[in-house]
Design goal:
It contains 11 helices and 9 strands. By secondary structure, it is α/β, with parallel strands linked by helices. It is about 40% helix and about 10% strand. It folds into 2 domains: about 90 residues; about 210 residues, Type I PLP-dependent aspartate aminotransferase-like (Major domain) (Aspartate Aminotransferase, domain 2, 3-Layer(aba) Sandwich).
Protein backbone atom coordinates (compact mmCIF):
# COMPACT_ATOMS: atom_id res chain seq x y z
CA UNK A 1 0.00 0.00 0.00
CA UNK A 2 1.40 3.34 -1.07
CA UNK A 3 2.07 5.91 1.60
CA UNK A 4 0.88 9.52 1.54
CA UNK A 5 2.33 11.69 -1.15
CA UNK A 6 4.62 14.64 -0.58
CA UNK A 7 3.14 17.71 1.11
CA UNK A 8 2.73 20.56 -1.35
CA UNK A 9 3.68 24.14 -0.60
CA UNK A 10 0.06 25.27 -0.63
CA UNK A 11 -0.92 22.62 1.93
CA UNK A 12 2.00 23.52 4.15
CA UNK A 13 1.17 27.24 4.02
CA UNK A 14 -2.45 26.48 4.85
CA UNK A 15 -1.39 24.37 7.84
CA UNK A 16 0.94 27.07 9.11
CA UNK A 17 -1.93 29.55 8.88
CA UNK A 18 -4.15 27.26 10.95
CA UNK A 19 -1.48 26.91 13.64
CA UNK A 20 -0.92 30.67 13.63
CA UNK A 21 -4.61 31.26 14.25
CA UNK A 22 -4.55 28.80 17.16
CA UNK A 23 -1.55 30.49 18.77
CA UNK A 24 -2.74 34.07 18.18
CA UNK A 25 -4.41 34.41 21.64
CA UNK A 26 -0.94 33.95 23.17
CA UNK A 27 0.17 37.21 21.54
CA UNK A 28 -2.39 39.90 22.55
CA UNK A 29 -2.11 43.31 20.91
CA UNK A 30 -1.69 46.57 22.80
CA UNK A 31 -5.40 47.07 23.52
CA UNK A 32 -5.80 43.44 24.64
CA UNK A 33 -2.75 43.72 26.89
CA UNK A 34 -4.20 46.85 28.47
CA UNK A 35 -7.51 45.08 29.07
CA UNK A 36 -5.62 42.30 30.88
CA UNK A 37 -3.22 44.54 32.74
CA UNK A 38 -5.67 47.06 34.20
CA UNK A 39 -7.63 44.52 36.31
CA UNK A 40 -4.38 42.94 37.48
CA UNK A 41 -2.94 46.28 38.59
CA UNK A 42 -6.25 47.16 40.26
CA UNK A 43 -6.15 43.83 42.12
CA UNK A 44 -2.62 44.56 43.33
CA UNK A 45 -3.60 48.07 44.45
CA UNK A 46 -6.59 46.79 46.42
CA UNK A 47 -4.33 44.28 48.14
CA UNK A 48 -1.71 46.89 49.04
CA UNK A 49 -4.21 49.46 50.24
CA UNK A 50 -5.92 46.89 52.48
CA UNK A 51 -2.72 45.60 54.09
CA UNK A 52 -3.19 47.57 57.30
CA UNK A 53 -6.43 45.71 57.99
CA UNK A 54 -5.57 42.26 56.64
CA UNK A 55 -4.86 39.53 59.24
CA UNK A 56 -1.46 37.92 59.37
CA UNK A 57 -3.16 34.53 59.09
CA UNK A 58 -6.57 33.68 57.67
CA UNK A 59 -7.98 30.28 58.54
CA UNK A 60 -10.59 29.25 55.96
CA UNK A 61 -12.74 26.15 55.91
CA UNK A 62 -11.21 24.52 52.84
CA UNK A 63 -7.70 26.08 53.09
CA UNK A 64 -7.55 26.82 49.39
CA UNK A 65 -8.84 23.46 48.23
CA UNK A 66 -11.39 25.22 46.04
CA UNK A 67 -8.63 25.98 43.55
CA UNK A 68 -8.73 22.30 42.56
CA UNK A 69 -12.24 22.77 41.22
CA UNK A 70 -11.14 25.35 38.67
CA UNK A 71 -11.07 24.04 35.13
CA UNK A 72 -7.86 24.19 33.12
CA UNK A 73 -9.06 24.66 29.56
CA UNK A 74 -7.43 25.05 26.18
CA UNK A 75 -9.07 28.32 25.15
CA UNK A 76 -8.79 31.88 26.46
CA UNK A 77 -11.11 33.32 29.07
CA UNK A 78 -11.76 36.58 30.92
CA UNK A 79 -9.25 37.69 33.54
CA UNK A 80 -11.76 38.57 36.28
CA UNK A 81 -12.73 34.96 37.24
CA UNK A 82 -9.03 34.12 37.46
CA UNK A 83 -8.43 37.01 39.84
CA UNK A 84 -11.42 35.90 41.91
CA UNK A 85 -9.89 32.43 42.22
CA UNK A 86 -6.58 33.97 43.22
CA UNK A 87 -8.18 36.18 45.86
CA UNK A 88 -10.38 33.49 47.40
CA UNK A 89 -8.19 30.41 47.26
CA UNK A 90 -4.56 31.57 47.02
CA UNK A 91 -4.14 35.04 48.52
CA UNK A 92 -6.95 34.54 51.04
CA UNK A 93 -6.13 31.49 53.18
CA UNK A 94 -2.98 30.93 55.20
CA UNK A 95 -0.11 33.23 56.07
CA UNK A 96 0.06 36.75 54.69
CA UNK A 97 3.76 37.72 54.91
CA UNK A 98 2.98 41.29 53.85
CA UNK A 99 0.58 41.88 56.75
CA UNK A 100 1.50 44.48 59.34
CA UNK A 101 0.83 41.85 62.00
CA UNK A 102 3.22 39.30 60.51
CA UNK A 103 6.00 38.62 63.02
CA UNK A 104 6.12 34.85 63.37
CA UNK A 105 8.18 33.80 60.36
CA UNK A 106 11.27 35.08 58.60
CA UNK A 107 10.18 36.22 55.11
CA UNK A 108 8.19 39.41 54.85
CA UNK A 109 6.25 41.13 52.11
CA UNK A 110 8.06 41.74 48.84
CA UNK A 111 9.19 45.22 47.80
CA UNK A 112 6.86 46.68 45.16
CA UNK A 113 9.63 47.96 42.88
CA UNK A 114 11.15 44.47 42.85
CA UNK A 115 7.79 43.11 41.73
CA UNK A 116 7.96 45.50 38.80
CA UNK A 117 11.43 44.18 38.06
CA UNK A 118 10.03 40.65 38.07
CA UNK A 119 7.34 41.78 35.64
CA UNK A 120 9.84 43.23 33.19
CA UNK A 121 12.11 40.21 33.49
CA UNK A 122 9.18 37.93 32.66
CA UNK A 123 8.03 40.06 29.72
CA UNK A 124 11.48 40.33 28.12
CA UNK A 125 12.41 36.80 29.27
CA UNK A 126 16.17 37.19 28.80
CA UNK A 127 18.24 34.05 29.25
CA UNK A 128 21.04 34.42 31.80
CA UNK A 129 22.43 30.89 31.60
CA UNK A 130 24.96 31.56 28.82
CA UNK A 131 26.90 34.77 28.18
CA UNK A 132 26.48 34.52 24.41
CA UNK A 133 22.70 34.41 24.70
CA UNK A 134 22.29 37.18 27.26
CA UNK A 135 25.53 39.07 27.94
CA UNK A 136 23.77 41.94 29.68
CA UNK A 137 21.74 39.59 31.89
CA UNK A 138 24.86 37.65 32.86
CA UNK A 139 26.73 40.86 33.61
CA UNK A 140 23.80 42.04 35.76
CA UNK A 141 23.87 38.84 37.80
CA UNK A 142 27.64 39.04 38.25
CA UNK A 143 27.35 42.72 39.20
CA UNK A 144 24.87 41.84 41.94
CA UNK A 145 27.09 38.98 43.14
CA UNK A 146 30.02 41.40 43.34
CA UNK A 147 27.92 43.72 45.53
CA UNK A 148 27.01 40.84 47.86
CA UNK A 149 30.69 39.86 47.96
CA UNK A 150 31.59 43.35 49.17
CA UNK A 151 28.79 43.34 51.76
CA UNK A 152 29.98 40.12 53.40
CA UNK A 153 33.69 40.93 53.12
CA UNK A 154 34.75 38.26 50.62
CA UNK A 155 37.80 38.88 48.38
CA UNK A 156 37.46 39.99 44.76
CA UNK A 157 38.54 36.55 43.61
CA UNK A 158 35.40 34.97 45.10
CA UNK A 159 32.81 33.55 42.71
CA UNK A 160 29.15 32.83 43.20
CA UNK A 161 25.78 31.86 41.87
CA UNK A 162 22.27 33.24 42.13
CA UNK A 163 19.74 30.54 43.02
CA UNK A 164 16.05 30.33 43.79
CA UNK A 165 16.53 29.75 47.53
CA UNK A 166 19.00 29.23 50.35
CA UNK A 167 18.36 25.49 50.41
CA UNK A 168 19.62 25.08 46.85
CA UNK A 169 22.53 27.43 47.54
CA UNK A 170 23.53 25.36 50.58
CA UNK A 171 23.39 22.18 48.49
CA UNK A 172 25.71 23.69 45.87
CA UNK A 173 28.07 24.73 48.66
CA UNK A 174 28.28 21.14 49.93
CA UNK A 175 28.86 19.86 46.39
CA UNK A 176 31.67 22.40 46.05
CA UNK A 177 33.19 21.29 49.35
CA UNK A 178 32.99 17.66 48.22
CA UNK A 179 34.82 18.38 44.98
CA UNK A 180 37.35 20.71 46.59
CA UNK A 181 38.27 17.97 49.07
CA UNK A 182 38.37 15.34 46.33
CA UNK A 183 35.89 13.08 48.10
CA UNK A 184 35.00 9.92 46.20
CA UNK A 185 32.29 7.37 46.92
CA UNK A 186 34.73 5.19 48.83
CA UNK A 187 35.44 8.11 51.18
CA UNK A 188 31.89 9.05 52.13
CA UNK A 189 31.47 6.77 55.15
CA UNK A 190 34.61 8.29 56.70
CA UNK A 191 33.90 11.93 55.91
CA UNK A 192 32.49 13.91 58.84
CA UNK A 193 30.24 16.98 58.75
CA UNK A 194 29.78 19.05 61.92
CA UNK A 195 26.63 21.05 62.70
CA UNK A 196 24.27 21.76 65.60
CA UNK A 197 20.62 21.19 66.44
CA UNK A 198 20.02 24.76 65.22
CA UNK A 199 21.39 24.07 61.72
CA UNK A 200 18.76 24.32 59.00
CA UNK A 201 17.39 20.93 57.91
CA UNK A 202 18.33 21.60 54.29
CA UNK A 203 21.94 20.69 55.14
CA UNK A 204 21.21 17.05 55.98
CA UNK A 205 18.65 16.91 53.16
CA UNK A 206 21.33 18.14 50.74
CA UNK A 207 23.63 15.33 51.82
CA UNK A 208 20.98 12.83 50.72
CA UNK A 209 20.33 14.64 47.43
CA UNK A 210 24.06 14.68 46.65
CA UNK A 211 24.48 10.97 47.38
CA UNK A 212 26.42 11.80 50.55
CA UNK A 213 24.00 10.11 52.90
CA UNK A 214 26.74 7.80 54.17
CA UNK A 215 28.70 10.70 55.62
CA UNK A 216 29.03 10.90 59.37
CA UNK A 217 27.07 13.82 60.84
CA UNK A 218 28.08 15.13 64.27
CA UNK A 219 25.99 17.46 66.40
CA UNK A 220 28.19 19.93 68.25
CA UNK A 221 27.09 21.10 71.70
CA UNK A 222 25.41 24.50 72.13
CA UNK A 223 26.02 27.21 74.70
CA UNK A 224 23.23 28.87 76.69
CA UNK A 225 22.48 31.18 73.71
CA UNK A 226 22.01 28.28 71.27
CA UNK A 227 25.38 28.89 69.60
CA UNK A 228 27.89 26.29 68.50
CA UNK A 229 30.63 25.70 71.08
CA UNK A 230 34.06 25.86 69.37
CA UNK A 231 35.71 23.89 72.18
CA UNK A 232 33.35 20.95 71.67
CA UNK A 233 33.86 21.20 67.90
CA UNK A 234 37.64 20.98 68.29
CA UNK A 235 37.33 18.03 70.68
CA UNK A 236 35.02 16.07 68.37
CA UNK A 237 37.33 16.71 65.41
CA UNK A 238 40.32 15.38 67.31
CA UNK A 239 38.41 12.30 68.44
CA UNK A 240 37.14 11.56 64.94
CA UNK A 241 40.58 11.92 63.41
CA UNK A 242 42.11 9.62 66.03
CA UNK A 243 39.44 7.05 65.15
CA UNK A 244 40.42 7.01 61.49
CA UNK A 245 37.68 9.33 60.22
CA UNK A 246 38.18 12.34 57.96
CA UNK A 247 36.81 15.61 59.36
CA UNK A 248 35.48 17.44 56.30
CA UNK A 249 33.00 20.32 56.79
CA UNK A 250 31.76 22.48 59.63
CA UNK A 251 28.50 24.39 59.05
CA UNK A 252 27.92 27.52 61.12
CA UNK A 253 24.74 29.58 61.34
CA UNK A 254 24.69 33.33 60.83
CA UNK A 255 21.17 33.65 62.22
CA UNK A 256 19.41 30.34 62.88
CA UNK A 257 15.81 30.07 61.69
CA UNK A 258 14.51 28.92 65.09
CA UNK A 259 15.96 31.52 67.45
CA UNK A 260 18.12 33.82 65.31
CA UNK A 261 21.32 32.56 66.96
CA UNK A 262 24.63 33.64 65.44
CA UNK A 263 27.42 31.16 66.05
CA UNK A 264 30.86 32.48 67.16
CA UNK A 265 31.99 32.73 63.54
CA UNK A 266 35.52 33.99 64.21
CA UNK A 267 36.30 31.26 66.73
CA UNK A 268 34.89 28.58 64.43
CA UNK A 269 37.08 29.93 61.63
CA UNK A 270 40.11 29.47 63.90
CA UNK A 271 39.19 25.82 64.53
CA UNK A 272 38.48 25.15 60.86
CA UNK A 273 41.83 26.66 59.82
CA UNK A 274 43.76 24.76 62.49
CA UNK A 275 42.08 21.44 61.74
CA UNK A 276 41.93 21.92 57.94
CA UNK A 277 38.15 21.77 57.49
CA UNK A 278 35.96 23.36 54.85
CA UNK A 279 34.13 26.16 56.64
CA UNK A 280 30.60 26.90 55.43
CA UNK A 281 28.35 29.63 56.83
CA UNK A 282 24.59 29.51 56.34
CA UNK A 283 23.67 33.18 56.48
CA UNK A 284 20.38 32.79 54.62
CA UNK A 285 18.54 34.52 57.44
CA UNK A 286 21.07 36.86 59.02
CA UNK A 287 23.91 37.38 56.55
CA UNK A 288 22.60 40.66 55.17
CA UNK A 289 22.57 42.21 58.64
CA UNK A 290 26.20 42.91 57.76
CA UNK A 291 24.73 46.03 56.12
CA UNK A 292 24.30 47.49 59.63
CA UNK A 293 27.13 48.39 62.00
CA UNK A 294 25.80 46.20 64.82
CA UNK A 295 25.13 43.31 62.46
CA UNK A 296 28.61 43.55 60.95
CA UNK A 297 30.09 43.35 64.45
CA UNK A 298 28.06 40.27 65.38
CA UNK A 299 28.88 38.58 62.07
CA UNK A 300 32.64 39.09 62.34
CA UNK A 301 34.39 35.99 61.04
CA UNK A 302 31.79 35.29 58.36
CA UNK A 303 34.23 36.67 55.80
CA UNK A 304 36.74 33.93 56.71
CA UNK A 305 34.48 31.11 55.56
CA UNK A 306 35.15 29.03 52.44
CA UNK A 307 31.55 29.32 51.30
CA UNK A 308 28.59 31.44 52.34
CA UNK A 309 24.85 31.56 51.63
CA UNK A 310 22.55 34.58 51.94
CA UNK A 311 18.88 34.95 50.99
CA UNK A 312 17.78 38.27 49.46
CA UNK A 313 14.14 37.17 49.78
CA UNK A 314 14.53 37.13 53.55
CA UNK A 315 16.49 40.03 55.00
CA UNK A 316 16.23 42.23 51.89
CA UNK A 317 12.47 41.56 51.51
CA UNK A 318 12.75 40.72 47.82
CA UNK A 319 10.09 38.55 46.15
CA UNK A 320 10.49 34.78 46.30
CA UNK A 321 12.68 33.11 45.35
CA UNK A 322 16.17 34.49 45.60
CA UNK A 323 19.25 32.90 47.15
CA UNK A 324 22.96 33.60 46.72
CA UNK A 325 25.99 31.34 47.11
CA UNK A 326 29.52 32.72 47.35
CA UNK A 327 32.68 30.60 47.31
CA UNK A 328 36.03 32.00 48.32
Amino acid sequence: MAGPGPVTGDVLIERIGQLEALSRPLEPDASERLALREPVVAYAERFLEALADLPAYHDTEDLGAGINKSRIGEGPGPIEPVLDLLREHVDGPGLNPASAGHLAYIPGGGIYTSALGDYLADVTNRYAGVFFGGPGAVRLENHLLAWVREVVGYPKTALGNHTSCGSLANMIALATARDAWGLLGKDYDRAVLYLTSQTHHCITKSLRFLGLGQCVVRQVALDHRYRLRPDDLAQQIREDRSNGLRPWVVVASAGSTDVGAVDPLDAIADVAAEEDLWYHVDGAYGGFFALTSEGASRLKGMERSDSLVVDPHKTLFLPYGSGVLLVR
